[in-house]
Amino acid sequence: MLDLKDCSRISFSYGGNLLALASNTTIEIYDFLTFKRLSKLDSHAGRILSLLWTNDDSRLFSCDERGVICEWTSCRGVSCGKILLSCHTSYVAFMPNKNAIVAVAGRSLKCVSDRSVQWELIVLII
């Protein structure tokens, strides 16, 4: 059974059979066809703001308000690593042709690949 208590973010995998639900600092992954919980992911200290599946559904990225991006293997629910951006991170998007993600972090866009920032675009407000 799906636990929707305190659910603040939801994301379907591209194949449509996996569903990720974020509640505060925890992510639960369900098989949407059976509603069976496959894994519970606990690695964030801040409230989760964004969930993102890779195009092949093999990995899930999540980011929180403290600037932490976590990478998970979707089938096993194992953390592949963390990236600390040291500022409020509100959204992540996947760049499949570069095998990288772009994060909205503070007033900048940061491109992350191989767990390090490759480039940063700072937005100036005039």
Automatic annotation (TrEMBL):
Instruction: Read off the lineage from the record.
Output: Eukaryota, Metazoa, Ecdysozoa, Arthropoda, Chelicerata
Supply the alphabetized keyword list: Cell projection, Cilium, Flagellum
Q: Which domain of life is it from?
A: Eukaryota
UniProt keyword Transferase present = no
> Quick check: keyword Phosphoprotein in the entry?
no
Protein name from the UniProt record: Cilia-and flagella-associated protein 57
Q: Where is the signal peptide?
A: none
InterPro entries tied to this protein: CFA-57 (IPR052993), WD40/YVTN_repeat-like_dom_sf (IPR015943), WD40_repeat_dom_sf (IPR036322)
